[in-house]
Amino acid sequence: MSLTPHSKDSTIRIHDAADFNLDHTLGSAQSFRWRSHDGWYYGVIEGRLLKIRQTSQMLCIASSADEDPDSLKSSLLHYLDLKRNLPAILREVDADACIHEAIRNFWGMRVLNQELWECLASYIISQNNNVPRIKGIIQTLSARFGDRVILDDYVDYSFPSPESLAEAGIDALLECGTGYRAPYLWEVSASIVADTFNLRNLGEMSYPLAKQELMRLQGIGEKVADCICLFSLGHLEALPVDVWIKRIIEHVYFGRKASIREIREFGESYFGEYIGYAQQYLFHYARTFGLEKMTRIPQR
Q: What is the C-alpha separation between 143 and 11, in angstroms, rounded?
């Protein structure tokens, strides 16, 4: 992969973005900050507003921040998971006709590596919520407690820091539509500010330890902890079992209702160490085409 800054408009180009599809990746409900506008995706990552578009195997990127092109490239290669061998991962999980169809339809979709604090807070907000509403709450919080960022004529806001949300208080968070999640969001913000919960340590932990540490926090159960482990900490063995995944596994593989434990044990043994990628392809297929369109693979 190579990077070239554009001399006229400061756009950076990343060539040879092979086995990657920007639309599938940013449109698969992993992150809640990206919006399509005038042929570009605009989103805020780590405080700066980016715009990205893909032409064949080339990515064009511009940033609101005055940053070194190599630093921006490194950040995006990590964020978009472009350093992994996607074909090898998908070969490992291509276990049947159902997931094969999902892979065929959404080839190039990658699991994002999101900034830890924003990912953690976003998935607290996501509980018992739908994607449009999650996006709306996050946008409201960012506009009220984040910093304004501008790129071209597009205006957005950085995600608020733990300090900003802790200082705001529960009532102010409730005013942003967070509902019963407001105390959880405030408590984790306050814990980070007080250094009774250390985000930096999570990145150095194994998947089981990181998940256990996250579940110590009020308002973070197994599903949310697995989302954070998968979509920020890079633990591809994580399996977030939400309503979608439960229904998919029951419909496609079991043909009956099943417990969370049954679903987790099946997924881990059936798809192996890359179950995180497998669930994302199955999830996006079901969300796009409907559960009834998925080929049933009854298990003996």
A: 26
